[in-house]
Write a structure and sequence with these properties.
86 residues; mainly alpha
């Protein structure tokens, strides 16, 4: 028998479903927690310094911008991983 190097073949759609689930959870983790933490921090700072909702707006905006950068970096890495998978 010839020993051949077998290439890893996808086992049906399972690899794609796992990749999709992993992508979903990773991207959700980059968006939701910073937004929630920014909202809580901003609300706490507004109460502490007795201001209108300025800290809330600033903290949520900062978390949004940070999430945008993180999502962009992660999607680039996931795109490369997907290219290798196909």
């Amino acid at each position: 028998m010839d020993e051949k190097i077998q290439q890893k073949k996808p086992d049906g759609l399972g690899n794609y479903y796992r990749f999709a689930a992993k992508t979903f959870f990773q991207l959700t983790g980059l968006i939701a927690p910073p937004a929630v933490l920014g909202a809580f921090l901003g609300s706490w700072l507004d109460k502490r310094f007795d201001t209108w909702h300025w800290f809330l707006i600033l903290c949520v905006a900062a978390s949004f911008l940070g999430s945008m950068v993180a999502v962009r970096r992660k999607t680039r890495a996931l795109g490369e991983e997907f290219k290798d998978m196909v």
